[in-house]
Amino acid sequence: MKSQPETLNERQGGRAMGNQPEAITTLFDQQAENYQQRYIDGMLAHYAPDAELLFWSSENVSCTTHSGLRVWYESLFDQFEIESVQYRLESFWESGDVIGCCSIWQFETRMKPEGSATELQSLRATHILRKLGNEWKIVHLHASPQ
Q1: Which helix (H) or strand (E) holds 5?
Q2: Mean of the pLDDT values across residues 1-30?
């Protein structure tokens, strides 16, 4: 099943519009809010346990544990103020307790210290979500600059 792409400007009231599975929009809306609030525990709550986790980026960063992800997010938040976050789901597929999706994320950021110019950073991300118990968790995430 494939969704219709939405523009990043179609996000309203913290929700993505379109025909996406609720599992994706709920998780992504919460992650976008967690980025803006710099809420690392909230970010980590959406990831699968260490035994199933793989996070990697085009900058040769690879994490397979929550403690590794914590360090990565702390470094990110130490470098940047994140002023806004938007995403657009490009495509997805579902099979039982697994969802795969490709998305574009845009972050309006400002390098620390205060006073630096705001920059728009755009990432292409691939997520694999697995239903663990009653919750959908990120088991795989790859992101690279667009």
Answers
A1: none
A2: 58
